[in-house]
Amino acid sequence: MSLQHLSNSFIITTGDSPGTATLERAARLSAATGAPYIPRGRLSVAMLAKRHGASDVLVLVQDGVRLIRPGQPTLDYHPSMGYIRARRVLKGEADPMLTAARLEAGDTVLDCTAGMGADSLVFSVASGPGGQVTAVESSRPVCALLMEGMKYYRSGFPEVDEALKRIHVTSANHLDVLRSLPDRSVDIVYFDPMFRDPVADSSAIGPLRTYANPAPLEAESIREACRVARKTVLMKEKRKSSEFSRLGFQVEQRGQTKTVYGVIQIDSTS
Questions:
Q1: Which end of the chain, N or C, is less packed with Cβ atoms under 10 Å?
Q2: Cα-Cα-Cα-Cα dihedral of 82, 237, 204, 51, to 10°?
Q3: Signal peptide: which range, if any (predicted)?
């Protein structure tokens, strides 16, 4: 996992009484991200942020990691519904996202809007050890949360934990990443833009809105995705969203779910 061009608008610290292993984690994450590690001492997170001019504080604790923006809800790393869906996939059950993507074991996936990484986890479980999932997150603090969270989270199921560790997390604008890739270099390109008019926010997703980019997807992003993808370009949106027609996606999913997947199939002969 890597984190590129990280500014020091956030800092890394620990809980009140960190053990040696947690201190070593903090040092490694600081080296990987360029964000300074600040010993906690007796200061509250809010006071630590104020003293060091940081907008966000990544706090490492023994069993996990959390991202704190003073005055806002805390964002704890947890795969949320991604864990439940991953377990279903491991049991052989179908997942609408994977069906729409035409994903097969060994496929490579570029998740352009990682968020908390729930969809990346499902892709990673399904593509297996022979596949590769890259999760792109534009928010650098959230990206750091994913890097640390996916590495140390323990679900109780080895297949899920290994799938999390296989995900390559990077902080960047997804359009920049797409522009840098050769033609037909990834099997599936995926977009899950943050809904500007949310259906409902879970306790896990609600705090993420503080960090999310509310801008609609650019048509150039879809053009680049179609150039890069070998099989499909996939987008998740609300059922009646006009984004599907604006960006050229075909909605195939039936039923009454509030969110659906739009697909652009790539002609493998082109």
A1: C
A2: 120
A3: none
> Nearest Cα to 146, choosing from 128, 133, 173, 164?
164
Place of tokens 């790539």: 266
Q: Which residues does residue 59 pair with via DSSP β-bridges, in sequence order?
A: 13, 66
For the CA atoms of the chain, what is the radius of gyration? 19
Q: Do 10-72 and 81-265 have matching folds? A: yes
How confident is residue 87, by pLDDT bands cut at 50, 70 and 90? very high
For 143-188, how does the pLDDT look when each residue is reduced to its tens digit (9 = 90+)? 999 999 999 999 999 999 999 999 999 989 999 999 999 999 999 9
Bridge partners, residue 135, by sequence:
111, 169
What CATH number should be reported for the domain whose range is 10-72?
3.40.50.10480
